[in-house]
């Protein structure tokens, strides 16, 4: 009986101690959400390296949390299961609307805080412009993708093209790699993905981690969107309200990360990011407008 009472008391004290622990302590680490996407195991390894580096440089205890999709990551934000998250522009719009999340930083790639949506075809297809795609089969990635769905569909609508009427068939492939595989295999004639260069010289299809260089050489973009503000590092309303000074420490460490060789290597390995810069919600108004054009018609 005495032992049971002692264990109960210790448990109560443990719960109380955890409840009183401050964010960023070993008992209550700040949680950072990552979208595992197609490769959750690989992302976990990369997230662990990123978190360990950031932890060392901001002086706070951190914990990576891997979501299976952006939808699940948004749910983690809404339910306060994370304090920070890596979000796509569309993910940010959803997190702002559903949980009053706050964008802190945006990704810089190839020296620019932007990326682009492109429509790819095989070079040997004879397809050279959007009008050539009438009656062809087309692949988007998924409904939650900025460059793989929202921006390209909004762009097509802006040009007077209703995808469901214009194309013979519209499919949702899943991820960017899946879109590229469907184009290469001839399952579709064209598809939407992302580029990190304003003329479409570099993008998902040129990433050798996904596709051999010889395969990438078989593809080319026939449409490039307006620039899209970079992917975001975003905070929840609860952490920005409760501990703004800790948010500032994380932000400062992240900005400095892109200025060191070791930090840049980790950022590049994680999400092909060179560095991070300050971001405002207003930067993402073009994405919000595209989102509304696509989903609120």
Q: How many distinct helices? A: 12
Structural class: alpha/beta
Instruction: State the helicity in percent bands.
Output: 40-55%
What's the level 1 CATH class of the largest domain? Answer: Alpha Beta
Total domains, how many?
A: 2
CATH fourth-tier homologous superfamily of the largest domain: Periplasmic binding protein-like II
Mean pLDDT: 92
Q: Write down the overall geometry.
A: globular
Low-confidence stretches: 15-20
Estimated radius of gyration: 22 Å
Query: CATH topology of the largest domain, which one?
Result: D-Maltodextrin-Binding Protein, domain 2
Lateral arrangement of strands in the main beta sheet: 2-1-3-11-4-12
Proportion of residues in β-strands? 15-25%
Characterise the protein shown here.
With 297 residues, the chain is α/β, with parallel strands linked by helices. The protein contains 12 helices and 12 strands. The protein folds into 2 domains: 21-110 and 230-284, 3-Layer(aba) Sandwich (D-Maltodextrin-Binding Protein, domain 2), CATH 3.40.190.10; 114-228, Periplasmic binding protein-like II (D-Maltodextrin-Binding Protein, domain 2). The chain has helices spanning 2-20, 40-58, 70-78, 89-99, 146-158, 163-166, 176-185, 213-216, 237-242, 244-257, 261-271, 285-295, and strands at 30-35, 62-67, 84-87, 102-108, 114-122, 137-140, 169-172, 190-195, 219-224, 228-229, 232-235, 275-278. The strands form 2 sheets. A 6-stranded mixed beta sheet has the order 2-1-3-11-4-12, with helices on both faces. It is globular, with a radius of gyration of 22 Å. The model is unreliable at 15-20 (pLDDT under 50).
